[in-house]
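job 3f2a | input accepted
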Amino acid sequence: MHGGGLIQVKTVPCALDELAPQPHTWIPDLPKDLRGSQATMALSQIQVCIFDVNGVLIDSNRANARAMAEAFTEEAALQERIAQVYLTLTGIDRGSKIRIIQEKIMGGAFKEGEFDRRWETFQRLAHGAMCQAPLLPGAKEVLAEVGRRHIRRAALSNTPLSELKEILAAQDLLSLLDLVRGGGDWPKSESLTRLLAKFAFQPDRSLFFGDGKGDLAASRHAGLSFVAIDAGMGEFDGEAGFDGPYQHLAEWGQKVLAMKDLEAPP
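job 3f2a | predicted structure (266 res):
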């Protein structure tokens, strides 16, 4: 139906398809008090760090919620209800979000062509919102540091690939990524398992950074260690078995990588 897939960003000397997983040089393991709430794996074993985009790299969740609301209606009160529901739908694909809002808020089945119109309107509005939204603290610095330590950096999003590539370029993030994985009308868990299989990344040597319970579920499904990012929303309350939550990547970089001089929390 709608596009998605994989691109390779030419930031390494050879194509990623030709790279077999190999040991990487890293700093010695940090003391436990600098490692966060749970030491999910030895840092020296990591092959790839996989980053969700919305809510981890780009502070665009609320802007996207407004975009989704505007894609459905011009009525202010109804827009507010849609935006609130949207913010609870973390880590799931765009098509599922549209269907859930139709069922829970609008009621009734889609009329002919209505789903596609909602999709296309949201795509247009969200593209502008994500290009203009601020980066979250530490996004560029942590990506750069992970790259310096010879760890692959992948962006994984439910945003369709061509759109995602444009957004990352507008945010000046493409040069800090080795792989970009776009989404579509399918679950993030499927995108995650495809990414691991394509490049032979071992789940137990991979880290996934996400900001929602849907991301955590996808990580568990694929067998990855998970780093939770939550700016005080309580998204992971009642959950266990992951590292964090951290307010943003800057906090993770400070506590786990012992990075200094990162952007202060807003």
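job 3f2a | Confidence is low (pLDDT under 50) at residues 1-40.
job 3f2a | closed
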